[in-house]
Each structure stands twice: as C-alpha cells, then as structure tokens.
Amino acid sequence: MGSHGNRIAIERTGAPGASAVILLHGGGQKRQSWRRTGKQLAAAGWQAIACDVRGHGDSDPAPDGDYGYDRLVEDATSLIQAAGGRAVLVGASLGGKIALAAAGRLPPDMIRALVLVDAVPRSLESGIARVASILRPPPDGFDSPQAAAAALAATNGTATAPDAGARLQRNMRRDAAGRWHWHWDPRFFDPSHGLGIQPALTRLEDAARRVTAPTLLVRGELSDVTDAAGAAALAACIAHLEIAVIAGAGHMVVGDRNDTFDAILLDFLQRHVPVCGPG
User: What InterPro entries does its record include (predicted)?
Assistant: First the structure.
C-alpha cells in the first residue's frame, strides 16, 4: 500500500523476511524492468521488491493527480515500512531521484544503502528533453503498438524492428475506441509536479548532502542524461559516493548491460551491507 490509500503493485522475488532491496523504475517503465536483477538478488539471499511507481503499470493513478516528490517519497516510505522498516533503495533514472529524495528525508537507520542508476540531480538538459518527448505521446494515442514503436524509434534515431510492437504491447493499454496508449497516467509528467531538472535541483542536492548510507552511482558510458560533470557534482554532495561507469551502456543501463550492472550491484552490497536471512 502506498501513501494516502494509493495501491502500489509490487513483484517480490526471494524469501519473505530476508533483507530487502526496493527497486524503483524510471519514468514510463514498469516493475518488470527489474525482473532479471531481482532474480540475481534473490539468488544472493536478498528479497527483491520491485514496484510500479504510482500512476504506472498496475499501481493506482493518483486520484488527486499529485505526482510530486513528496507523494512519491511517501510511497517509497510505505514500501520500506512494509519490508520491515529498513531496506536498500535502488532506483533508475527518475526512480533514482525518488530514492535519493527518500534517503535524504528519512531517518538514516531506514536506508541500509542507496544505489542510483544513471540518476543525478544535475542531469543533461538535452537527454531529459529526449526522454520527455517519448513520455508525452499524442493525446489520442496510437493506431497500434507497432505505430508506437515506430514513433519511439524515430525519437531515438533508430530503425523499427519488425517485432517491436509486440514487445511494447505489455507497456500499453487499449481504450474503448481501439486506440493504444502508454500504461502510465499522462498527468504524471505535468511540469507542475516539479520533477524537472531545475525545479528539483535544490531539493535533490540538499537531500544528497544528508545521505549517510553507503551510496553507489552507476552510469552509462554513452548516456545522454548523466555525464562525468553530473557525477562529480553529486560526489561534491556525497563525499563517500562510489561511481561505476559501464562501457557501452546508454541511459537505460539495466536494459543495455544487465549482467554487468547486476555484478556491480552485488559486489557493492557484499562489501557494504550484510545479508540477513528470514527470521
């Protein structure tokens, strides 16, 4: 259950009662984006809890349309409390910024470690603009998932694979008129929520200065959202920050180089956070 009665869909992998790792996806994604990582965490003795951020996937849309950081952090807090009151937070892209905001706001003993995946307060404006263009589709939707795939490929400057629509379909919903839409509440990305770079900069850097838990930033070498300057700015706020750069990965680090990411994540956890089994 999220904050204010908003239901949050989760996918739990591993033994109930084991040390929890809460996985927060990026904007426009779903909990299934963490499935392979969840299996690796479970095999290492962790309990992986991947959620659909409010307004995404199977989680409830916000009845009042509130998708600001305060409400998103309250949802993350509810997940930590449901997992026993302490957890590792791992977040990709916007999910990383939510995790950072939560780690800076909550009591230190609730956050065992923090892992940010291609997420820094000082993101690159051009990369964020590219992502935003994907997340704000036509109000009337698409003729088909394949049409959505073609629009996505055009934004990324790539060709459309013949099976791209079929693979995208799980991330879409069909309305009564037969039009296809992304699975998230379109109100989520309204600028009034303050999720953009400049509106959130002071909040996120202030949160970063309060983080005491072991913290890792994993960024993609080819990312157009997070660069070395953004990583350095975050390191200036978190003196104990560790940084890993994954060669050949873009902004979608977990999808681009999942095995490499999982190995880096598990090594970091092994060095900093002991696993506690059920009971």
Answer: AB_hydrolase_1, AB_hydrolase_fold, Carboxylesterase_BioH, Epox_hydrolase-like
